[in-house]
Amino acid sequence: MNALPSLHALRVFEAAARHLSFNRAAEELHLTPSAVSHQIRGLETFLGVSLFRRAHRKISLTPAGQRYLPLLQTAFQQIRTATERLMADRDNDLLIISVVPAFATQWLVPRLPAFQESHAQLEVRLIVSTDLTDFSHSDVDLAIRQGSGKWTGLSSRWLIDEDLIAVCSPALLTGKQPLRQLSDLRSELLLHVISRIGDWKNWLEAAGASHVNPEGGSRFQNWSLALEAAIAGMGVVIIGRRVVSHHLDSGRLIIPFDVSLRSHHAYYLVYPGERESLPKIAKFRRWLLAEVAKDRLMWSTVNGHPVKG
Fold first, then answer.
1. What are the CA-CA distances from residue 63 to residues 12, 18, 39, 51 (Å)?
2. Considering the entire predicted model, what is its pTM?
3. Alpha-carbon distance 269 to 286, whole Å?
4. Tens-digit pLDDT profile for residues 48-91
5. Contact indicator for 241, 260 with CB cutoff of 8 Å
6. How far apart are CA 149 and CA 77, in angstroms?
7. Fold: same for 93-161+265-299 and 163-262
8. CATH topology classification for 93-161+265-299
């Protein structure tokens, strides 16, 4: 016989046989007792045997039902196991990373194709967010955050410190009001990122530029917009030196003032400690730390002077 009974009917039988109650099976499966009874009768008709003895308000398994139940339970367990393994394989091939915006767009994304090329079996998904990931209630595998490196219950690996610099388009160094020295900086040229609204105040204090109102200028929702505005010649933005290095190398942006401010917050790779040895976590961590090491080597000397971090 090639035909098979309905999987739904088999699930109904298994629940009813396990509980020895049509009512309890109905509750478990969110059906009505009459629907359970209908499914059982249909299954018995299909098989050509009775599976239950029905007496008043009680039911019991017939010998055929007693033989059928453990075989079905084994089959259902095999289906569950096969499904779990398939989903585990899928999860092992999917790496979900939450990354703060500036690091994502200016540092990680330009380097990510190299990781994908050497780890073609992994599908990488980036979530760009300033929110702290709740690993216990999300599918995120690991995160790149800014902070002190101390997050309860999480392992963290220091990546790079953040040295804040002012950058702008070379076009601002020419024109009617060229930006050639710190005294030329005007409040209306300040470009702010809303989530880092205090950066200009801190940088101006470090630079001793008390003539500039740190509240002036334009505000942007994220780093990408602020950087595009700076590249377009709209003004000057404060950002970490390393995350904007490719724009400096290309000449799209320049550093108009020799002032650098070490931020209190560094970048860290963060993940739950129990995931330390997961192959996909280990592969990405190993690659990321190697990229960071190359980055540190590149920045180990700036203008002939050693730079920490």
1. 18, 15, 19, 8
2. 0.59
3. 11
4. 999 999 987 899 999 999 999 999 999 999 988 887 766 665 55
5. yes
6. 43
7. yes
8. D-Maltodextrin-Binding Protein; domain 2 (3.40.190)
